[in-house]
Amino acid sequence: MLERSRSQAAFERAQRVLPGGVNSPARAFEAVGGNPLVIESGSGARIRDIDGNEYIDLVLSWGPLIRGHAHPAVLAELQQAAARGTSFGAPCEAETRLAELVVERVPSVELVRFVNSGTEATMSAVRLARGVTGRDAILKFAGCWHGHADSFLIAAGSSALSLGTPDSPGVPSDFARHTLVAPYNDAEAVAALLAKHEVAAVIVEPVAGNMGCIPPAEGFLEALRALCDRHGSCLIFDEVITGFRVAPGGAQERYGVEPDLTTLGKTIGGGLPVGAFGGGRKWMENISPLGMRVSQAGTLSGNPLAMAAGHATLADLVAADYTRLEAIGAQLAEGLKEAPVPVQVQRVGSMMTLFFSDVPVLDLETSSASDGKRFATWHRAMLERGVYLPPSPFEAFFVSLAHTPEDIDAILAAHREAVGELA
Ligand code: KE4
To answer: Same structural domain for residues 273 and 391?
Structure first.
């Protein structure tokens, strides 16, 4: 067992002043047991805990660090920006520069508004869709996570074709009834719901990353596009994970399907707090102070630091980088398939998940049926061997441009030993 006494003591101290010792429940290690590590630093593909143990990092702060930790170019931009002041609450050129990059690379985006988290982005996009269409209902997919705004904390009701029910205390049932829920990859369920309800927006992770990595079934995204066109609903691609990760223009470029609105986060801030939503002028020219003036605001939206970190992260990403991410991702995924028990390794580009399942994982039902106990055993065994994975079977993990083929070999060597504990 690795020495972790300082982490243990620091986490106990955190628990005295932070609920559960964390500022986000995803970090709490509930699904895998044990206590979270308290991290001191990161560099490239590695992080170090406060006991000095080093790990190859496959969480990368849940996706933002596509260039790895503490990338010199990002730090340089950040330091220069900070030296000029951290925030002005007024227009600055840094936000225009990053907006121009988003508009240039994301096929469906003509105008973009920056916010401070993915949750703010999805919440604002849904309000815009409701404002422009004049409709209340939205449709989401069981197992997709769009952040913690009330309208999304909704589980599928008794059958997949039912009205939503709150998935968290504190969400009024009046909110829940406006959220319809369908199984992921089930276009027929969507067709049935849109035929029955006036729906403002269909919001989808074009590659699911929050019930583990689940690619869209053949024709699924195209079907959503056609159904939204037919019923006058806004199609929202939540690309907070996939944006700038699975292709330069995100999943909409990779799969060739353009949504009406796109939400972004994570990579576009290079590890600083950020989110964004954007789309065609028909929609975005109704966000306050324009058009219908759909309300949306934020003190630190577009702040110079996050804009500088995001621009430094994305500006020089070229096709060859995505080719490298694809190759590193493939090398890891292929090796992870070696196991003495049934596994499904599901990957899109540099995001993937290893499910302990003997059937492909297509939706929340098959994801939930995967073996969580085996995942917990594997996670612990990998952590002991210096590989830092997300502490839940319902997350994607990532490689970055800082991960080398040798790092992948080291991860796979740890994997071969770790799965030995499962036999
Ligand atoms: P944030 O509010 O956490 O910045 O973004 C919410 C969000 C929206 N959409 C998608 C597709 C997302 O994946 C997320 C947040 N992702 C989770 C884990 N997959 C972040 C980790 C956490 O909640 O601590």
So the answer is: no
